[in-house]
Amino acid sequence: MQKILTLNRPWFALGRHDIRSNLPAALQGIMQDGLLDRTFQDALVPEFLFPGVATSRPWAANMGDTQHFTRRGLLTPQTTPLGGVDPTPEAYSAERYSMTMDQYGHTVDTNMLESAMTLASTFLKDIQTLGINAGQSVNRIARNKLYKAYAGGRTWAPALGTATVTMVVDSTDGLETTLVNGIQTAVSATNPIMVSINGAAAVAVDGVNAGTNTLTFNAAQTWAAGDSVVAANAPVSYRPGAKASAVDLTGADVATFSLFRDAVVRLRTMNVPTLGGAHVAHIDPTTEGQLFADSEFQALYRGAVESPVWGNLALGRFGGIDWVRNNEAQTRSNGTISYHEPIVLGADAFVAGPFSEMGSLLSQVPEGSSVDVQMVSVGPAIQVARIIRPPQDRLAQVIASSWSYVGDFAVPSDETTGDAASFKRGVVVQHA
After folding, report:
1. Which distant-in-sequence residues (6+ apart) come within 8 Å of 138 by Cβ?
2. What residues does 99 pair with on adjacent strands?
3. Share of the chain above pLDDT 70, in %
4. Alpha-carbon torsion 109, 113, 119, 125, what sign?
5. Dihedral sign of CA atoms 116, 120, 122, 127 in order
6. Paired sense of beta strands 203-209 and 237-238, if any
């Protein structure tokens, strides 16, 4: 349950002033009765769909610092009797992921003179707009990290290449690093990554330029326009007709339930835990509309039960999935059509790393300042600050409203457990 968390030290009492004494009477009431905070929270919370499935790992660091974390692998099952001999110790595998402490935020001004006749309603609308912006922004930060990992490692060559060592691809996501001794390391001649071109034998990539989407091979290659490029450690993803990459999709390749059934089978095969008893599929309205035209989906949906995880944000629970409407599910273009990328996730698919001392950070506002700050808690340990600053312009008529989030998101790999795929706790479905 989301709730407004008020810091122990009232922010309106910072310094000598109560912020409400610096605002018009029309605004003092909505701040005192909590309407302002409810408006911000109601606008913010529905946009927090991707962070809502993240595992929270609060941490503390200076702004801009990068910290490394470790996810442990498993020990090898032992089925041979010891025969009276001491067991031999085994070192478990470990994989490292990183997060960087960054700050995100935005602001909006409310001019009291321009809004004099309807100041309270205008101010509330500005706060609502700010809450929507905060939710969408933090949601997309999380989404972009998820898709870079789970939709990465699989791309295509837009143009013909003949006997050359450099290839321009649609995207280098998932091709920029390789696991070396448990650490994601930049691809180089010393640490190459293996890829197959149009299903041929694997070749080594020993250089990646993400700025120009260019791969450098260790030997000259030839390929046709539209040939797929798939990393040996690419995450598993599904497309209609088992097509090799999204460039092969046409307008007829629509979403069906069988693609999501395959995704659930994949997650279960990799022993990916559920979230509250089911895996979670984030689908946009286009995916939803196409699924309702699929006979298998229709039959299952008739027996749908309400999702205990997502409440009225979910279509229901069936087929081992909590189906969540999410307009922020990624959509891309293959040069011919736009294609959609719903994603099915299990537990621990990615990690939210909020700053653990958010209240302490904001409490560094200089003594004598007159501001109002409330912490809105969204999901486990994820907090967004809502900040109101009274007029400080020369005409004393512009109120500044802002939001702030400090932290990062990360997607840990599981390359040393299970098959060769780097990321196993989510599956992307691609369709027209």
Report:
1. 47, 48, 51, 104, 382, 384, 405
2. 67
3. 86
4. negative
5. positive
6. unpaired
Token pair listed for 64: 């801009």
Please give the angle made by the CA atoms of 123, 125 and 130, to the nearest 5 degrees. Answer: 95
What is the reported pLDDT for 118?
66
The answer to whether the beta carbons of residues 118 and 428 sit under 8 Å apart is: no
**Local confidence band at 363 (pLDDT 50, 70, 90 cut-offs):** low
Contact between residue 157 and residue 167 where contact means Cβ atoms under 8 Å apart: yes
237, pLDDT greater than 60: yes
Identity of the amino acid at 32: Q
Exposure string over 378-403, b if 16+ CB within 10 A, otherwise e: bbebbbbbbbbbbbeeeeebbbbbbb
User: For the residues 252-276, what does the mean pLDDT come to?
Assistant: 96
Distance separating alpha carbons of residues 305 and 314, to the nearest angstrom: 10
- Which amino acid, one-letter code, is at 99? M
- Does pLDDT of 362 surpass 70? no
List the end-to-end C-alpha distance of the chain, in Å, as a whole number: 36
Residues 6+ apart with CB under 8 A from 269: none
Cβ contact 31:23 at 8 Å = yes
Instruction: Measure the CA–CA gap between 365 and 9, rounded to whole angstroms.
Output: 12
Quote the pLDDT of residue 13.
32
Closest CA to 78 of 67, 89, 68: 89
Nearest to 342 by CA among 425, 423, 428: 428
Q: Are 357 and 346 in contact (CB under 8 A)?
A: no
425/414 Cα distance (integer angstroms): 8
Q: Which helix (H) or strand (E) holds 174?
A: none
Q: For 323-336, what is the mean pLDDT?
A: 93
The two structure tokens encoding residue 107: 């602001």
Sign of CA dihedral 194, 196, 200, 203: negative
The stretch 213-237 carries a mean pLDDT of: 97
Only one residue has tokens 């300042």, namely: 369
Task: Report which secondary-structure segment, H or E, holds 431.
Answer: none
Report pLDDT digits (tens) over 134-189: 989 999 999 999 999 999 999 999 999 999 999 999 999 999 999 998 889 999 99
